[in-house]
Amino acid sequence: xxxGLLGGGAMLLLSLALAGCNRADRRIGQPLPHPGPMAVxxxxxxxxxxxxxxxxxxxxxxLRVALDVHGLxxxxxxxxxxxxxxxxxxxxxxxxxxxxxxxxxxxxxxxAGPHLGDLPDLVVGTDGRGTLAVNIPGATIAGLLGGDGxxxxxxxxxxxxxxxxxxxSGARIACGVFAAG
Length: 181
Description:
Blueprint: H1 2-7, H2 10-18, E1 38-45, E2 50-59, E3 62-69, E4 75-77, E5 79-82, E6 122-124, E7 130-137, H3 141-145, E8 151-155, E9 172-177, E10 179-180
């Protein structure tokens, strides 16, 4: 059941998470009447090769993060927004832990989770390309860029959506720092 829920149906997971919202909140993710600031992150692999880009923008009720990558191994890859806006290769440990201002546990399947930075798995096709778009309720560009900034990190394996600190998703294989754009 896990593969069907998270493999092809990552958005189903997000829909279930939002199902308890009241009617007024069902517009989460719709564009704002006057577009606000945007943040952009250019992702690089551990060798410094550019492999994609992420964007983030305020939307009604939260933050929309979109990711488009190429040149990655096919399969599912854990993807997270990290707490520090640094991406020092080769292991990207400088990005710190997941963006977690509320002190939650890791994963959408964890009763005490998720972190704000826990995103659905990025699914990469046999052509090495993958895209992901997700709304993070309650998050903002100001929060994303505040403090030490933030980064987006792609991991080598899929995220089990439960285990602290990163869902057993393996090594960090790509990273990009969000900057106002």
